[in-house]
């Protein structure tokens, strides 16, 4: 049995990465700014000094496909940060409606049983995103040494961040890459989720109980391999109310779609 070693490794992993949660959160949301000068100079009023010493290497903007990301080097933890922007506010409602009808329509390369979401897959692999990110990582590692890589993203940006982390884990090794996403949608079927967990074990998906996006595209247990399925591991943010007391909780799970509908 490997249950105990897996749990021990998870606790070690979480004790390290959860301390970095605030920094990852800032990186994931700072990328939403439309002021590229502010982004490049890292003058974010909400960062409160946490980004001191952070160096932006490249801002990647794909106007045609409405995509934006940046690559930079953080002093603490000393690592390369890749952050993907999610859906712009003016298009969120249409994007959510669209996700209800998205089908699994692409077989992931090298995995004949792994099906993924065509739009998310294409947004990373078939646009300027992948080429520019790989170029920036190579430059950063040549300049600063073989730094570990942290990939973050929110909502749709979490989907792109996941494909990016998988790509980088295959390229540089799973020990070199960590992924943290916030409110990301499902991106593949159960076979893909298993494959992803094997390739990117240092993963945390942060979801909130009132966020609809992690429920999309929908999961249907009776469709087996032909439905979308989240990969592990989830940190679920939820609230419990006892009289006039509201308690904010964090639940860490290895994840099983059948245990909850999110």
Explain what you see.
One of its GO terms (biological process) is lipid metabolic process. This is Fungal lipase-type domain-containing protein. Residues 1-20 form the signal peptide. Keywords: Signal. The chain is of the alpha/beta class and 262 residues long. The protein has a single domain (16-259), classed as Alpha/Beta hydrolase fold, catalytic domain (Rossmann fold, 3-Layer(aba) Sandwich). 35% of the residues lie in helices and 26% in strands. The protein has helices at 3-17, 21-30, 36-41, 92-99, 118-125, 128-144, 156-172, 190-199, and strands at residues 55-62, 67-75, 78-84, 104-107, 115-117, 149-154, 177-182, 203-208, 234-242, 245-253. An eight-stranded mixed beta sheet has the order 1-2-3-6-7-8-9-10, with helices on both faces. A two-stranded antiparallel ribbon has the order 4-5. A hairpin with a 2-residue loop joins strand 9 and strand 10. It starts with a helix and ends in a 9-residue tail after the last strand. Residues 1-19 have low confidence and may be disordered.
- The overall strand count is 10
**Radius of gyration (Å):** 18 Å
**What is the CATH topology?**
Rossmann fold
* Gross CATH architecture: 3-Layer(aba) Sandwich
Number of domain units: 1
Biggest sheet, spatial arrangement of strands = 1-2-3-6-7-8-9-10
Largest sheet: 8 strands, mixed
SSE layout and pairing:
Blueprint: H1 3-17, H2 21-30, H3 36-41, E1 55-62, E2 67-75, E3 78-84, H4 92-99, E4 104-107, E5 115-117, H5 118-125, H6 128-144, E6 149-154, H7 156-172, E7 177-182, H8 190-199, E8 203-208, E9 234-242, E10 245-253
Parallel strand pairs: 3-6, 6-7, 7-8, 8-9
Antiparallel strand pairs: 1-2, 2-3, 4-5, 9-10
Helix pairs in contact: 5-7
């Amino acid at each position: 049995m490997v249950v105990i070693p897996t749990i021990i490794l998870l606790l070690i992993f979480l004790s390290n990465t959860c301390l970095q949660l605030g920094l990852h959160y800032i990186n994931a949301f700072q990328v939403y700014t439309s002021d590229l000068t502010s982004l490049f100079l890292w003058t974010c009023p909400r960062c409160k000094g946490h980004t001191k010493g952070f160096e932006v290497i490249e801002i990647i903007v794909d106007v045609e496909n409405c995509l934006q990301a940046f690559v930079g080097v953080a002093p603490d933890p000393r690592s390369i940060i890749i952050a993907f922007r999610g859906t712009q506010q003016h298009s969120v409602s249409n994007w959510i409606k669209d996700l209800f009808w998205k089908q699994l329509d692409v077989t992931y390369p090298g995995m004949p049983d792994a099906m993924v979401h065509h739009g998310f897959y294409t947004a990373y692999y078939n646009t300027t995103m992948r080429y520019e990110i790989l170029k920036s990582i190579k430059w950063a590692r040549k300049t600063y040494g073989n730094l570990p890589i942290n990939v973050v993203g929110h909502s749709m940006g979490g989907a792109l961040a996941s494909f990016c982390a998988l790509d980088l884990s295959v390229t540089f090794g799973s020990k070199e890459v960590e992924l943290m996403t916030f409110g990301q949608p499902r991106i593949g079927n159960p076979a893909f989720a298993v494959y992803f967990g094997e390739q990117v074990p240092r993963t945390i998906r942060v979801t909130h109980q009132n966020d609809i996006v992690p429920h999309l595209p929908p999961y249907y247990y009776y469709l087996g391999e032909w439905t979308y399925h989240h990969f592990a591991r989830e940190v679920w943010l939820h609230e419990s109310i006892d009289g006039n007391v509201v308690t904010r909780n964090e639940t860490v799970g290895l994840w099983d779609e059948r245990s909850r509908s999110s």
